[in-house]
Amino acid sequence: MATTIRDVAEAAGVSAMAVSKVLHGTGATVRVSDETAKTIRRVAAELRYQPNRLARNFRQQKTNTIGLVFAHFARIGEYDGYFAALLNGVLTATFQSDFGLTICPELTESSSHGMINDGRFDGLLWCKPGFSEEGRESIQRSAMPIVMMHAPDGYGPSVPRFCCDNSQGLQLAIDHIVGLGHRKVAFVIDPYNHTTAEGRTRANAFHAAMAKHDLATTDSDVLFWSVACSELSEFMTRLDRHTALVVFSERHAVSLLRTADTLGINIPNELSIVGFDSSAICEATRPRLTAISQPIEQMAFDATKALISYIEAESFPSRSFIYPCGLDIRDSTACLPSRS
Amino acid sequence: MATTIRDVAEAAGVSAMAVSKVLHGTGATVRVSDETAKTIRRVAAELRYQPNRLARNFRQQKTNTIGLVFAHFARIGEYDGYFAALLNGVLTATFQSDFGLTICPELTESSSHGMINDGRFDGLLWCKPGFSEEGRESIQRSAMPIVMMHAPDGYGPSVPRFCCDNSQGLQLAIDHIVGLGHRKVAFVIDPYNHTTAEGRTRANAFHAAMAKHDLATTDSDVLFWSVACSELSEFMTRLDRHTALVVFSERHAVSLLRTADTLGINIPNELSIVGFDSSAICEATRPRLTAISQPIEQMAFDATKALISYIEAESFPSRSFIYPCGLDIRDSTACLPSRS
DNA sequence: TTGAAAGCGCTACCAA
DNA sequence: TTGGTAGCGCTTTCAA
Predict the structure, then answer these.
(1) What is the pLDDT of residues A113-148, one digit of tens each?
(2) Same structural domain for residues B201 and B280?
(3) Residues of chain B whose C-beta is under 8 A from some C-beta in A?
(4) Does residue A59 lie within any of the structural domains?
(5) Are A54 and B114 in contact (CB < 8 Å)?
(6) What is the number of structural domains in chain A?
(7) Distance, Å, A127 CA → C11 C1'
(8) Looking at the structure, do residues A281 and A183 belong to the same domain, yes or no?
């Protein structure tokens, strides 16, 4: 059997408490002399003592682990650059604070509430919340520290939020597009994302940004798009009125580029496209994709750090943190073609 | 305080054991009547009893969690499609088996050995092992079930391995390239990956595959490549002898496409490029990238399932599982240009 | 078919 | 500056 703290205590001729104090620094009331401490450390090393993490977790009812929750979990491939950036940010933060990270792929089942609330996590980083009834209830009932990403104000319960400034981001894109002379612009989104908080926010922001240029838009300027190729072609042929598209995600935008190529539509000369989430893939396409950027990795890092300090009760950030977007202008946008 | 099993027992007028048996199905020697069981379940629901996962972990010295270890952890962005596919496979498997997944970003520090061996994981999925001294020792000392991915036979300790058939994959690529008339082919890899088991295996496989066509290669046909742009240009200008490149990863291949574009080199008419790991990004580039594919998601799924069954002692797979590669021929390869 | 007792390894609390 | 005691919530073992 593995060496326990008591084995060490016995071998060193001290109490288990002294060992605990020396090796783990717990127990504020316990003082140990330097000499005793040295002996304890030596004996522990000799005995190859390995603290049992499970016992500590149990005793302290703390795991030093946070859960990364994807509500309405979709396959990760969909997120691509986004997910990598997110994970880099989260992992950097957890690693710095000696926290573990567990990925929670599902939360739609009713059983999930129990699974995330059974003590395995000290806190939750909730991404892309869809705010289903179950999700909402889960959050409300949970006593666990929670931080949300990509949930604009006004959606869901009152927890700290880390979100990009969708309005400002879309304004950047629209300013750029309109500055190039475009007047008929569409916002493209898939039906699922249009049900999410972020999807609705971006759609609204699109209308608002157009209005700032005194350009009227209607619901019919929000185009729904799905993955099926046949529909994609149909979709493109429906575009005769529009000369520019702002697309909910860069993945969708890349698909549109390919479809346009197939249909012989020249991007950007016949149609301008702007994506959301500027990532590596935007550099790989031809033409390179103009895209709105958000500092995902930084946001994920900050959100995780905030969650951890929340857990450790050092601070209680309860407000929204809004990150400004950028616009990476590449080659998929150009001046309005002169209509002959 | 939270409701405990004893609270439920008391309220139901039974012993804690009976509750444990009914709610968690443990304790083979205990029999409970249907009636009692129903009462217990009712009372537990009324009291909103939530089993304490930490206590169970502790008691059973089992966490139902596996660790996903990246030796020599690099930023995830580097892996892109690879990492997403990997994670999808692993998560599907863990989810099916009610296991949790924790990401371990670092293992190079000496302290890591303790961190992964302190009971928090029931097993380890070790990806991209670099086999440093520490890593090797870690594995050897650990009593934990371990499964490796991307570690060809002959590298590292004897644990179950899940690896693609690098030889066959490179043979596919070389057959294709040589079939197009190319005779001077180079293998491109970055210095770091050339130190990994998989990197060396692929380089060797390249030589072997060329030899099958009676085409002699030397070490100078393995070209080292680094990210710095200036070196990239230099690199391309060094290629006068070669008419085709087989590239260690698709990320590198995409960069080469861009550099070629900058330098005015026409792909595929002046230079053919084949990447390793056919992924979404290969479809997004122009020209689309011909690439060797490996079933990463399936491999990750199988590896995880094997690890879990290993943990649960249902089976002990101790052999290598080799997956055949495919070749997705796209637009970055073409017939040898006629030299004027 | 049921219960009682003991203890997993650690640390909070109190006593010396 | 130190040690003893108790107990976290659960399950294994043994007794009824």
Answers:
(1) 667 788 899 999 988 766 566 666 666 677 789 999
(2) yes
(3) 50-55, 57-58, 61, 63, 65, 75-77, 79-81, 83-85, 87-88, 91, 95, 100-103, 105-106, 114, 117-120, 254, 257-258, 280-281, 283-286
(4) no
(5) no
(6) 3
(7) 35
(8) yes
Give residues with Cβ within 8 angstroms of A103, minimum separation 6.
A67, A68, A70, B87, B91, B101, B103
Report the gap between the CA of B96 and the closest CA in chain A (Å): 11
B1 touches strand D (CB under 7 A): yes
pLDDT of residue B282: 87
Residues B146 and B110 in one domain: yes
Q: Which chain A residue has the Cα nearest residue B95?
A: A105
pLDDT in tens, chain A (340 residues): 688 988 888 888 888 888 888 888 776 666 778 888 888 888 888 888 888 999 999 988 999 999 998 754 455 655 567 888 888 899 989 988 889 999 886 555 545 666 778 889 999 998 876 656 666 666 667 778 999 998 877 766 788 999 999 999 999 999 999 999 999 999 999 887 888 788 889 999 999 999 999 999 988 888 887 655 555 566 666 666 789 999 998 888 888 888 888 888 899 999 999 999 898 888 888 899 999 999 999 999 999 999 999 998 767 767 889 999 999 999 999 998 655 4
What is the pLDDT at residue B340?
A: 42
Query: For B94, which residue in chain A has the nearest alpha carbon?
Result: A105
Q: Rounded CA gap, A337 and A321, in Å? A: 40
Which chain C positions have some atom within 7 A of a protein CB? 1-15
pTM above 0.85, yes or no: yes
Min Cα–Cα distance to chain A from B150, Å: 20
CATH for A37: 1.10.260
Of the residues B1, B47, B58, the best mutation for testing chain A's interface (the one with the most A CB atoms within 10 Å of its CB) is B58
Query: Cβ contact (<8 Å) for A77 and B84?
Result: yes
CATH number of the domain within which A251 lies: 3.40.50.2300
CB atoms within 10 A of CB A92: 17
The answer to whether the CB atoms of B57 and A61 lie below 8 A apart is no
Q: What span, in angstroms and rounded, lies between the C-alpha atoms of B185 and B274?
A: 11
Query: Are the beta carbons of B284 and A63 separated by less than 8 Å?
Result: no
Both A283 and A201 in one domain: the answer is yes
Q: Is residue B108 part of a domain?
A: yes
| Subunit contact A87:B103, Cβ cutoff 8 A | yes
DSSP three-state, residue B259: helix
- Among chain B residues 25-84, those with CB within 7 Å of any atom of strand D: 26-27, 29-30, 51-52, 55-56, 58-60
Residues 50-79 of A with CB under 7 A from strand D: 58-59
B304 with B284, same domain: the answer is: no
- Residue B206 pLDDT: 97
Count Cβ atoms below 10 Å from residue B114 Cβ, excluding itself.
13
Can you point out the beta strands (E) in chain B? 65-70, 100-104, 123-127, 146-149, 161-164, 185-189, 222-224, 244-247, 272-276, 290-293, 320-323, 326-328
Write out the residue range of the structural domain in which residue B246 sits.
166-294
The phi and psi torsions of B338 (rounded to 5 degrees) equal -70, 120
The C-alpha angle B104, B145, B106, rounded to 5 degrees, equals 15
Closest nucleotide to residue A59 (Cα to C1')? D8
Q: Is the peptide bond before B337 cis (omega within 30 degrees of 0)?
A: no
Q: What is the dihedral of CA A234, A236, A242, A247, to 10 degrees?
A: 110
Q: What is residue B129's predicted lDDT score, i.e. its pLDDT?
A: 64
